Amino acid sequence: MGSPTALYFLDHPTHSRGDDVPPTRSHIRATTEGYLARYPEERQVLADTTRGLPDPTPLDLGTGTGQVPQALLPALPHLAYIEAVYWSRSILNQARAALKPVLGDYTLNLVQTSADVYAPLAPLPGEDKWTPDLVTCCRAYHWMSGMDVLAMAHRVAAPQATPAIMGDGSLWTHEADRHLAGARPFLASGDEEFVRDLIRQAKALPPLDWVETHGDFQRRNILYAGTSQAAEDVDDSADFLGLIDLERSEPGPAVRDLVCLADAWAGLPDLYEAFLAGYGRSLTGAEKARLAVDMALDAVSGVSFGIAHGDPELVERGRRTLARLRAEHSSPNSLTGETS
Q1: Is 41 exposed, middle or buried (0-12, 13-18, 19+ CB in 10 A)?
Q2: Rounded Cα distance, 131 and 125, in Å
Q3: Which pLDDT tens digit goes with each residue over 2-61?
Q4: Residue 3: inside a domain, yes or no?
Q5: Which residues, in sequence order, are bridge partners of residue 162?
Q6: What is the DSSP letter of 227?
């Protein structure tokens, strides 16, 4: 890759942690239809980068179940060849099964390796070396050795190639648009502007370390039994704590699991302080800012869902959360995450 047309970071990527972390079930549950709906603008941007090329050839890093190639196929009708990279053979088998029915005349090559050490196959005698025109990495860059991946892309890509790295920042904007559309008639004046301001400023926050998160961490999904009630197969000298409903579990910032819990200590500062004492530390400014964004999106989502499914309690909880957030943040979060 000589002088690329652009290096597209279509959101704010998080810290690299290596791409040898196995995916959770939530990584592979999304359908292609949902993916296409979630990234319409990104897909068009990527398609535009290959305009004018007779037979563009993309390389997808961290391909998982092949959702990026599936999303690109309708937007790039002149594709001839797709190469996709992932470390897990079993997940690549799922990608092959998903892509095979929609490939048509395209050629697909799946490579089992980590992205930072990937290298294309050496050409046969008389053949030109394959060089991708588009290098994509969607919702996977934060697991990779980032600088090594970029150096690899520089080595293998065509001079005119465009590398595009996508992650969760673009999800914030899309999800806000989708949920606000459904919730708008029931929002208070200024709610929508407040939510959008939080999202805009949060994109400039420093990235947070990722951990495994539950995704729906609220009281109804926490099972607790004291010593006298502990299950027989658990050491009866200790209390028993269990979690259920792991459908939404996936890697993310630790504060993701405080979104639902936050309603429990609303207006009860002593309870919040007690939680932090058990947690072991206070939240950083950036964590507070990220939590505010996630709570606002969750509130709007709850209002939208409650309207659509006749759940007035969910609607009211969402409206209450937005009112509380606006009262706590008399102006939108600063770039450090501190509130005024």
Answers
A1: exposed
A2: 16
A3: 443 344 443 333 322 233 333 333 333 333 444 545 555 666 777 788 888 888 889 999
A4: no
A5: 134
A6: G
Q: Count how many residues are written for the chain.
A: 340
> What is the rounded CA–CA span in Å between residue 223 and residue 316?
26
In a domain, 64, yes or no: yes
Give the chain's mean pLDDT: 77
Rounded to whole angstroms, how far apart are CA atoms 54 and 78? 7
Give the domain range for residue 102. 8-167
Q: How far is CA 176 from CA 49, 273, 293, 337, in A?
A: 26, 30, 10, 20
Clarify whether residues 16 and 65 are in a common domain: yes
Letter for the amino acid at 20?
D
DSSP 232-244: TTS-TTS-EEEE-
Q: Which residue has the tokens 């964004």?
A: 293
Q: What is the pTM of this model?
A: 0.56
Is 27 a member of any domain?
yes
CATH number of domain containing 84: 3.40.50.150
pLDDT confidence of residue 118: 94
The tokens for 169 are: 């920042």
pLDDT tens readout for residues 80-118: 789 999 988 888 998 899 898 888 888 899 999 999 999
